[in-house]
Design goal:
Elements lengths: L6 E4 L9 H16 L3 E4 L13 H11 L23 H13 L3 E4 L3 H13 L15 H13 L5 E4 L6 E6 L3 E6 L7 E4 L7 H11 L4 E5 L6 H11 L5 E5 L2 E3 L17 H6 L4 H9 L14 H7 L10 E3 L1 H14 L2 H14 L9 H14 L9 H4 L2 H4 L6 H7 L4 H13 L6 H15 L4 H12 L7 H8 L1 H15 L1
Parallel strand pairs: 1-2, 8-9, 10-11
Antiparallel strand pairs: 3-4, 4-7, 5-6
Helix pairs in contact: 1-10, 6-7, 9-11, 12-13, 17-18, 17-19, 17-21, 18-20, 19-21
Amino acid sequence: MAKQEIRVRYAPSPTGHLHIGNARTALFNYLFARHYKGKFILRIEDTDQSRNIADGEQSQIDNLKWLGMDWDEGPDKPGDYGPYRQSERKEIYQPLIDQLVAEGKAYESYMTEEELAAQREEQRANGEMPHYVDEYAGLSPEEKAQKIADAKAAGIQPVIRFKVPEHKKYEWDDIVKGHVAFDSETIGGDFVIQKRDGMPTYNFAVVVDDHMMKISHVFRGDDHVANTPKQLMIYEALGWEAPKFGHMSLIINSETGKKLSKRDETILQFIEQYRSLGYLPEAMLNFIVLLGWSPVGESEIFTQREFIKMYDEKRLSKSPAAFDAKKLEWINNQYVKAADEDRIMHSALHQLIKAGKIETDPAPMKIEWARKLINLFKRQMSYTAQIVDFAELFFNGPEDIDEEAKAEMAKDDALPVLKALEKKFADLEVFDTVNILAAIKAVQKKTGVKGRKLWMPIRIAITHEMHGPELPESLELLGHELSMKHLRAMIEELS
């Protein structure tokens, strides 16, 4: 591996935001490059102008950087092999397309979209796999020339099709899948390499770009396997050596076992969505790397530097990778718990402001109150947007208690504990954690009630919940006035 210059690329289309599957492709290429001290290239494949969105490229760049990736060459980092947008490389593709046409390896095709659609429909009706049938088959040179002349006279713009060699096998040793082979008859007939608007198709442009940019290895999703024989044909036709290919396993929904589809709304699938919820980038990177790649040993939490050091492409899995949202939450929770207090405070405060719970420009005292509130729930949060639901009590008051809580409050010790606590709280001049805890301890001493029988009635009475963060800290944040109000309301109800 060390003798060959390692050059890999991530080549997204700017047709949308960064998808989990594409982020994984980028990460596996990035880790491979960094592990072998090679080059990682970002290339924008924007030849399908109709599907590109205005901020598609910038969104890809921003989210890749958010995940912690950098690249050696790209649209924002010009290198020796640019331009790094396909739309700016048209003059590179055209001479090569002309060359293939001149050599009889490609040709002009004048079949209209309507004719192609009708051909496919007829094939389906006959139980055949849809495929292109040579429109000039069986024609004499004169008849072919006349057909082309008629099409030109009608103003039909041609596409350029690559002539698929007959009865030939295309095979490669895939880094992930092992040996793969296709017969040329199985790929659907002569395929388009240049569209009517003059732009090259993906399968042609990607070959030219990878060759011109000296790409040594191509790691991509399993859905590209069927493209590989077409690309090998073009490499062969141009007399170029193909890179080594590695096709990574599909990602499936762990709940359904089905391939992860952008139409599957049970799973958030775009990095932007996780950023918005307050997931941490290093946790997202950790989770994504484990989708189809396994480290040695049992540990599952690693830094980016550790991943780079231990990365081994031989540990890429042939089996589908299960996207488990609960595991992602668990991983992110590990990072939240370990994160700097100020970092989580900043993220969670943003969530509270976004939800309208705290004003946009809070006063210093409100910020300090929010800091204590966020720290109270820091260990529980899988992502910082959860603070909005976790802290509902502190903004909108407690909900009605449920039947299980009512059963707890019906026990004999509940009312004496609450009455004793009301008296202690009423005498407190400073309502803080230390004094609240002291008051509860004094109630224990006076009533002889301790443990769950002491703490549960107090928690339910004031918060209407049976579980939650540390009670004295919660009551301090709720404040003396509200705590007393809830406490007295429960005493009145039980009396």
